Amino acid sequence: MLIASFAVGPWQSNCYVVAPEPGGPCLVLDPGPGALELVRRVVSEQQLTVTGVVATHGHLDHVLDAAALCRETGAPCWIHPADRHLLTDPLAGIGAAAAPLLQGLTGGEPMVEPPEVVDLTGDRLELAGLELWLREAPGHTAGCVLLGADHPDESVSGVLFSGDVLFAGSVGRVDLPGSDPAAMQHTLSEVVLGLDDGLAVLPGHGEQTSIARERAGNPFLRRPDALAGSATAAEVVR
Questions:
Q1: Rounded CA gap, 52 and 76, in Å?
Q2: How far apart are CA 36 and CA 38, in angstroms?
Q3: Cα dihedral across residues 100, 104, 107, 111: positive or negative
Q4: For residue 16, what are the CA distances in angstroms to 36, 64, 111, 225?
Q5: pLDDT digits (tens, 9 = 90+) for 74-99
Q6: How far, in Å, CA of 10 to CA of 205, rounded?
Q7: Taking the model in full, what pTM does it have?
Q8: What angle do CA 210, 214, 216 make, to 5 degrees?
């Protein structure tokens, strides 16, 4: 498996290019601000063809370049239907106070949907020659998902693209428009804590981690109930 990653935009969101091997199809996860040119570079170097664009959720820092990438490659955009509206109404997910930043990123042009949008639902799907499993993980947004895949490296049981649900030492913030602390608490306790310890976690921001490491040391996994109504929690998470 080929996984290329790079942080983009003012929020340093992680974008991933994932393929079974060089010289074939690939999918792009979370193409945020400035991802397009870097994706082009990876695709050219590895002789890849983008056949799918996937959003782990609909926040601006994970989807801003999705429409342009889909138009350029002809690939569909996969996103959970609960977050589809954020493709054209980004302030609904980050708040009106971010309007000046949005204008700076888009040059004042309205965001539009990619030409083809597909609902990211179900338990399993095949994209770009990859067998992926999916878990709905609402809380940070209503449409957050976790995506996992087997990995040939025997040192891990697989890889998990966790978006803004789980980070190294932290979790996604729950004080934004559309966030739900109670839903996040359920996601952490019933979904994340049910995952295999051997999964390598590739998050939406920051460094790689693992389920085992987070189970042992992440304070929000050890006490998911700390999120509910906690201003402190909101201040320390992305």
A1: 6
A2: 6
A3: negative
A4: 11, 14, 22, 31
A5: 999 999 999 999 999 999 999 999 99
A6: 11
A7: 0.92
A8: 120
